[in-house]
Amino acid sequence: MHDSPIMIPQANPGAGYLAQKEAIDAAVQRALASGWYILGKEGEAFEQEFAAWLGATRAIGCANGTDALALILRGLGIGEGATVATVSHTAVATVAAIEMVGATPLLLDIDPDTYTMDPDELAAVLEDPPPGLPPLRAAIAVHLYGQACDLDPMLEACGRAGVALIEDCAQCHGATLHGRKLGTLGTAAAFSLYPTKNLGALGDGGVLATDDFELADRIAAIRQYGWKERYVSSLVGVNSRLDEIQAAILRVKLTALDAGNARRRAIAAAFDAALAGGPLAPPMRREDAEHVFHQYVLRGPRRAEVMARLKAQGIGTGIHYPVPVHLQPAYKGRVALGPAGCAETTRAAEEVFSLPIYPELSDAQVERICAALRGLAE
Ligand SMILES: *Cc1c(COP(=O)(O)O)cnc(C)c1O
């Protein structure tokens, strides 16, 4: 038997911890020693530092990215009796958040080159809503894999219809469109801080951002039992808080985010070069937008074979996402689809796969992946 090569995992959140171990350990010790574990100084400092980094007026920490979306919907008064349009080609969390607040999801198709919402279909359902659904009150734009949606026509269509555009920024911390950071362009934005995201806690976490002071105040109350003052629930609330230990860790991680994104882009450029002339095309980049490569996604008809060849060379791959939301057992036949019937979504789910891409990949590991990609052309 010959030795199999050491596996390069598709994701490796432990490497992100080790890269900043001393500073993270010190931050955890500080939070532990403070004697205050929920909604204290670390959380407040993280919210301020994140808002400043993003260029938003307010940031509010919460328990996870799903809750960040749900809190925005609740803050906008969107729940039962409202429809919210989004895509089926996303983490199921986007759709789960809509149903969590009692609203009805409407799932639209994607543009097959960028895997993000088809803005024409959004404009069509805003103008001519599908029969039998409650009124459309919001759209959730998912900036998938680290790249902006075709946001301009979506903002215009939502503005014309008077509905909110919420950005799902769970995969795009630091990405830009026309030089402006994603998460500052819609009514409000939700960020997941799950360990594998570009900004990841060492546990669950989420943060949302908005420039609307009143909305921010409502959401800050809703995240803790609807309290504006202790023990007085002025609004109907939930419990969705970011704890002090995660906040302290995230303050350290935030200092490495821009450099981490730059490293992801450099790795992506190396992959692009290795793919040149081969059977698989590099991922499409939107014009006047900066991609932060949460995932580096390729597409081809013989996916299983390509993934197996890479695995034999010690390269882990993943599929984001193998089954679109509208075909999942819990949603199939029950969830409303737009006029396109999510045909491109269904096709993409059968063909996409993701390479390892994270800042801690060594140059040697990147070169190993590039060599394997060059080998696909043979
Ligand atoms: C990760 C993710 C979420 C959910 O975040 P959690 O922190 O896991 O709740 C939502 N939307 C997208 C697009 C995601 O990738």
From TrEMBL:
<feature type="active site" description="Proton acceptor">
    <location>
        <position position="197"/>
    </location>
</feature>
<dbReference type="Pfam" id="PF01041">
    <property type="entry name" value="DegT_DnrJ_EryC1"/>
</dbReference>
<comment type="similarity">
    <text>Belongs to the DegT/DnrJ/EryC1 family.</text>
</comment>
<keyword id="KW-0032">Aminotransferase</keyword>
<keyword id="KW-0663">Pyridoxal phosphate</keyword>
<dbReference type="GO" id="GO:0008483">
    <property type="term" value="F:transaminase activity"/>
</dbReference>
<feature type="modified residue" description="N6-(pyridoxal phosphate)lysine">
    <location>
        <position position="197"/>
    </location>
</feature>
<dbReference type="GO" id="GO:0000271">
    <property type="term" value="P:polysaccharide biosynthetic process"/>
</dbReference>
<dbReference type="InterPro" id="IPR015422">
    <property type="entry name" value="PyrdxlP-dep_Trfase_small"/>
</dbReference>
<dbReference type="GO" id="GO:0030170">
    <property type="term" value="F:pyridoxal phosphate binding"/>
</dbReference>
<dbReference type="InterPro" id="IPR015421">
    <property type="entry name" value="PyrdxlP-dep_Trfase_major"/>
</dbReference>
<protein>
    <submittedName>
        <fullName>DegT/DnrJ/EryC1/StrS family aminotransferase</fullName>
    </submittedName>
</protein>
<dbReference type="InterPro" id="IPR015424">
    <property type="entry name" value="PyrdxlP-dep_Trfase"/>
</dbReference>
<keyword id="KW-0808">Transferase</keyword>
<dbReference type="InterPro" id="IPR000653">
    <property type="entry name" value="DegT/StrS_aminotransferase"/>
</dbReference>
